[in-house]
Amino acid sequence: MVNDSRDRGQIMLIGAIAIAFIVLGLVAVYSAQLTARPATTGSVGDSTAEATELNREARRNARAITIRVNHDQPYYASRAALNASVDDAVANYSGLMAETYAGSRGAAATVRYDGAARMGTRTVRHSDGPMGGASPWHPVDQPSDLGWFVFNFNLSAMDKGESFVVRVENGTGADPPDTTYTFTRNTTGSSVLSVEVDSETGATILGRGTCNPVGNRSVIDLTTGESFTSSCAFGPGIDRLTGPYTVTFEQGDNAVGKFGIVTDTRPTNWGALNARPDCTGGTEPCNTYAAWNVTITTGYESGALSYENTQNVTVYRGA
């Protein structure tokens, strides 16, 4: 089974060469309070349209802001530290929106961050190193929804012709139950990364791609099955499979670089997820905090209308 393709937002690259920025999946559940007043500078209809547009913009941008903050630091020492960073970023955004609405529309606009409705987990290797050892290991050993899965390979540090295998398995046993992604540095020419996607049995090749690096780095988004450092696409990505998922790395010592995986797993379940430590201890790979769902409140005030709306924004796809 496959899921419908989801809309993608803006992609930003950060880090040594790039760390992918994806905006995927949104579910908004909100309650609104509207109070009509005698119009002084416009009709209720005009103000309602402006308030609706503010709400839509705030929802979209709160999602983008939260993803940027989630991945802005190698790790966060606590959920409070992450929440504080998101709060600061949303407050800056609210100030810009207030200036825009006051100057162009004569209305007061606010956007407030009310906290993470659900805190997820970012499993990360934030400095170059092997993806694992000769034995398989499970960065996601507990069936989980995946919202982000990005590799940043250092091809110059990888041996030619040696393969690194990522096995993504449907945690419910639904069809297809298992998809394998094999990454190999080419044996000839420059440091080019070959990707092959196979079905569970290996009898069916689902996709192939040859990805050219930038500065010997190749950034791969396994969520969509694309590279951010070249035009190659090797699909299907994980967003076309049915979750929740478990993930296994095989022959991890054949790959060098960085990676990040965001799941909906609560931080209290890190032991069941992959038994990796908190990133504050300095050991990698490690687990840190990622806001999976956030709550925001938008406010709009004009001579014709007073509006306040609280909504839950799903930052990553899934859930």
Automatic annotation (TrEMBL):
On the tree of life, the source organism's domain of life is Archaea
Transmembrane segments annotated in the record for this chain: 12-32
Instruction: Give the originating organism.
Output: Haloplanus ruber
Protein name (record): Flagellin
- Keywords of this entry: Membrane, Transmembrane, Transmembrane helix
